[in-house]
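Re: that backbone. Tokens:
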């Protein structure tokens, strides 16, 4: 997978979407192709690629929240073909990868990666034409919020950012090619819990009993939730 590295960007998702647009429009910009032949040769026929940054000035999370992105964390985006299971694939990929570094993460539906009751990684998926951009933030050596944790906090070790990135990218390639639903259910801490879900226009209370083949959260009442912000209740 090709990796584009930057020191500082607004967000890696923003940069990845711009590269996708350039690639999709390259046939219409013959003059630009002539000036930058190496770039377009590199992009021609390429499938997945990743954008990595040392810092983000306007990192984004789900539900239009900001994602604090100080130097020392891992911030990257993967551009790939659309797949309705991407939220589950991304969550499983990150959680399984972090196990390689001595952690025991779980997934709060849909794909918040948690260690205990603290968030260690967040995932944001945005769609553009026939592509999806999977943005991932992992706290490596710093914890920007009291409700968060990091690899260093949990293990006491200074783990290489590149090692974490390489593990995630390798696993993403693997899990993108297989059905991850069973693996997801093993990692999902929301199943079996009473939850409050803040959807776009309503708040729903209930017991989560399953995640279906489309990645929807299934409640005991039979209601299926496509998206929303989940709070685990006691």
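Recovered sequence:
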């Amino acid at each position: 997978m090709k990796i584009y590295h930057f020191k500082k960007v607004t967000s890696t998702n923003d940069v990845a979407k711009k590269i996708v647009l350039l690639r999709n429009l390259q046939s219409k910009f013959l003059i630009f192709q002539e000036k930058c032949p190496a770039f377009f040769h590199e992009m021609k026929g390429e499938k997945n690629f990743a954008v990595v940054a040392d810092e983000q000035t306007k990192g984004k999370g789900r539900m239009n929240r900001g994602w604090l992105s100080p130097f020392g964390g891992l911030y990257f985006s993967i551009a790939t073909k659309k797949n309705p299971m991407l939220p589950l694939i991304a969550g499983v990929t990150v959680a399984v990868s972090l196990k390689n570094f001595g952690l025991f993460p779980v997934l709060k539906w849909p794909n918040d990666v948690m260690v205990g009751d603290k968030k260690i990684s967040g995932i944001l998926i945005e769609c553009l034409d026939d592509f999806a951009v999977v943005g991932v933030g992992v706290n490596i050596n710093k914890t920007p919020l009291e409700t968060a944790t990091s690899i260093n906090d949990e293990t006491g070790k200074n783990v290489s950012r590149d090692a974490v990135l390489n593990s995630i990218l390798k696993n993403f390639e693997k899990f993108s090619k297989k059905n991850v639903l069973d693996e997801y259910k093993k990692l999902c801490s929301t199943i079996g819990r009473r939850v409050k879900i803040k959807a776009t226009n309503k708040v729903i209370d209930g017991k989560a009993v399953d995640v279906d083949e489309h990645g929807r959260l299934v409640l005991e009442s039979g209601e299926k939730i496509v998206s929303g912000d989940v709070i685990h209740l006691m």
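The mean pLDDT is 88. The domain at 2-187 is CATH 3.30.930.10 (BirA Bifunctional Protein; domain 2).
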